[in-house]
Amino acid sequence: MFSYSTKSNTNSNLPLIGVGLRHEHYDDALTSPANIDFIEVHAENFFARGGISHSLLADVKQHYAISIHATSLGLGSVEPAPSEQIEQLHQLCQQNDALLVSDHACFSWANISDTPVHSGDLLPVPFNDESLEVMSANVERAQQHLGRQILVENLSAYIELPGSTYSEAEFLTKLCQQTGCKLLVDLNNLMVNAINQKVSDPVLQAQQWLEQIPSQLVGEFHLAGCTPVAETDIMIDDHSQPVSSQVWQLYRYALQKFGPVPTLVEWDLSLPTWATLIAEADKARTIAQEVLGDA
Amino acid sequence: MTLKMTQPSTSTLSKSQNDLVEAIFSLQNSLELESSLEPGNSLELSGSAQQQAGLAIYQNNMLANGRRALSITFAYTSKLLGLSNFNQLADLYLTNSLKTQYDWGEYGKDFPEFIEQNTELSSTEHELTTALVAELARFDLNLHQATRAIDIEPDLTTLALLEQVDAYQLTISLASGSRLFQCQYDIVGLAQQLDNITSQGVDLHQQTMLENLQQLSDKSLLQPLTDKAMESDLVDQSQYVFIWRPMFKAHFETITQSQYLWLQKQLQQQSIGAALDELIALERNDFSLLEWLPKAIQQEQLTSIKKLN
Predict the structure, then answer these.
(1) Nearest Cβ partner of A159 from B54, B61, B245?
(2) Which DSSP string corresponds to A14-77?
(3) Nearest CA to CA, how far is A48 from chain B (Å)?
(4) Does the pLDDT value for residue A101 go beyond 50?
(5) Distance CA A192, CA B242 (A)
(6) What is the pLDDT of residues B199-228, one digit of tens each?
(7) Contacts of the segment B225-231: beta carbons below 8 A, 24+ positions apart
(8) Which of A223, A230, B9, B226 is the most exposed place for a label (fewest CB within 10 A)?
(9) What is the pLDDT, as a whole number, of residue A183?
(10) Which candidate, A152, A138, A76, places its Cα nearest to that of A108?
(11) CB distance from B101 to chain A under 8 Å?
(12) CB count, 10 Å around CB of B125?
């Protein structure tokens, strides 16, 4: 439905590899351009009407293709996102010739005392027909406004809402089939959920999740690290660590099943040096070469 | 717990979403959500340690994101209060104010009013008053909004219009984010002292409010200007401030009341001629366009001259 424009990868047998660009790395990303195919920014960091963020992004665009990752549409919200919000995303995507555009399979908007309220977080939805109807309508509305296909990311969820009648993979597959969107499969989120569900073999459970997804529906992978919360048994998806060995193992499996899907390394907290982050991206490229070959 | 709805309906989904968001912002430690499908399928967070821990993660995320966003928007206020006091205030605000904006950068527009109505600060043993902190927060908000305002490209070739076109047909376009601020404390002096202390290598975020106040060399900054006016027989008891953004950083300076009136009329897109006439009618003889213009150009306060439609 849309084509990728890469600035360095000319081998169609290998995936585009990118990293999430955060504020602390702006200077390094501009002064030491890395051998990556794209960078991803969080849309909301560039929602100001003017100022330094726009200028920085214009500079970044000179060196890298840009993917826009939104975190606030709340595609599963019964309370719809305001049109102004989607328009801001639209303008950002247009100004930066966005390579990919994505948000999450979550809800963020609610209505309290007749006032639309935004949670500021990615909150889980039950996987049933009600949620599917709401999310499909919101995804279609977003795609129509943006004039392009979007990718929808699976969540790491810390509570389970009642009323699910589908598995998450079934739900997301139906969402893609109904709306024409694709999935951004966050492999770390799969691992975090499996670990928090206390299954005996989290990697196997995540592989089984991937097995349920038709190959043509995956448009991007996210790789990241996670951290256990002290005094609880919960693992949180805080993107503050290197990609775990389990997620690398899952990445190999995902590449075998889905082929050269664009891949992004995320690191949001306790940021490493730019060079360390790029090394993680290099590791992803090396694994892709091993799995898919570099012919 | 009683479950009333057994058929799938958007209203049930809506209610569970609203309840969860309300539980996050009100820091409830338990939550019961109705299932739309089977009566026995309800989620009782109060009965599950895992679910309670999950709810706490969302609540902690909300507080962490909210504190961070507010400390960016209200940078001077955060510096003055110290991080611990500021976070307490932020937590109180976060749990009492609905977040209606999707962009954390736009959150907190009524934070200054919230501070003003909050009695906690007034009861401290320090000289710091709620009114001063609220006014500093209002100043912060103006700086923040100026920083995010739409970019305006300067075009100084339009200065030639001043010689070619009647002054009643021209107006002045000011820099990005230009705005006026009036206050009852020496907010500019306080902000400059906070800047100076930080630039001397002291990280005020790590300090307590008391330590921060001790760093202020001029304690009179904590008094309202009305007190100073009484001491020195000054008539004008307000501080007038102009805020503008030449490039990426918001600048600010104190101005006279006449300059304030002049800039107010320019922000209202009044013609240069009409604005000068009004100043003369108000007997504001201390304002001179010939003196203001070169300084405004030099400080990048003025971006262009425009013909009125």
Answers:
(1) B54
(2) S--EEEE--GGGHHHHHHS--S-SEEEEEGGGG-SSSSHHHHHHHHHHTTSEEEEE-S---TT-
(3) 5
(4) yes
(5) 51
(6) 555 555 555 666 666 666 666 677 777 665
(7) B225/B183, B225/B184, B225/B185, B225/B186, B226/B184, B228/B186
(8) A230
(9) 98
(10) A76
(11) yes
(12) 6
> Tokens in use for B112?
């200054």
Residue B164 in contact with partner chain A when CB distance is under 8 A: no
- Cβ neighbors of B40 (< 8 A, separation 6 or more) are none
Sign of CA dihedral B128, B130, B135, B141: positive
Spell out the domains of chain A, with CATH numbers in brackets: 17-292 (3.20.20.150)
pLDDT in the model for residue A230: 67
Interface touch A112/B35, C-beta < 8 Å: no
User: Would you call B22 an interface residue with chain A, using a CB distance cutoff of 8 Å?
Assistant: yes
- According to the model, what pLDDT value does residue B209 have? 60
Place of tokens 């997301």: A172
Burial B150-169 (b: 16+ CB within 10 A, else e): ebbeeeeebeebeeeeebee
Q: How far apart are alpha carbons B101 and A49 in whole angstroms? A: 15
Q: Are the beta carbons of B10 and A133 separated by less than 8 Å?
A: yes
Nearest to B65 among A78, A120, A165 (CB): A120
A261-278: buried (b, 16+ CB within 10 Å) or exposed (e) per residue? bbbbbbbeeebbebeebb
Which of A50, A52, A161 shows the shortest C-beta gap to B16? A161
Q: A38: buried, middle or exposed (CB in 10 Å: 19+, 13-18, 0-12)?
A: buried
DSSP E strands in chain B: the ranges are 32-33, 43-44, 170-174, 176-183, 239-245, 251-255, 302-307
Interface confidence, given as ipTM, is 0.91
CA distance A188 to A186: 5
User: Residue A67 contacts by C-beta under 8 Å, 6 or more apart in sequence?
Assistant: A18, A38, A39, A40, A41, A98, A99, A100, A101, A102, A220, A262, A264
B20–chain A Cβ distance below 8 A for any pair: yes
The answer, for A163 touching chain B at a CB cutoff of 8 Å, is: yes
Q: How much is the average pLDDT of A96-117?
A: 96
Q: In chain B, what is the straight-line distance between the N-terminal and C-terminal CA atoms, in Å?
A: 66
Contacts of A141 (CB under 8 A, 6+ apart): A80, A86
Q: Across all residues in chain A, what is the average pLDDT?
A: 92
Residue A117 burial class via C-beta count within 10 angstroms: exposed 0-12, middle 13-18, buried 19 and up: buried
Q: What is the pTM of this model?
A: 0.88
pLDDT band per the 50, 70, 90 thresholds, residue B2: very low
d(CA A73, CA A86): 8
Rounded to whole angstroms, how far apart are CA atoms B211 and B199?
16
Is the CB of A228 inside 8 Å of chain B's CB atoms?
A: no
Predicted pLDDT of residue B11 = 79
B288 in contact with chain A, both atoms CB, cutoff 8 A? no
Instruction: Please give the C-alpha separations between residue A66 and each of A22, A43, A266, B38, in angstroms, as whole numbers.
Output: 13, 11, 14, 45
What does the pLDDT read at residue A241?
86
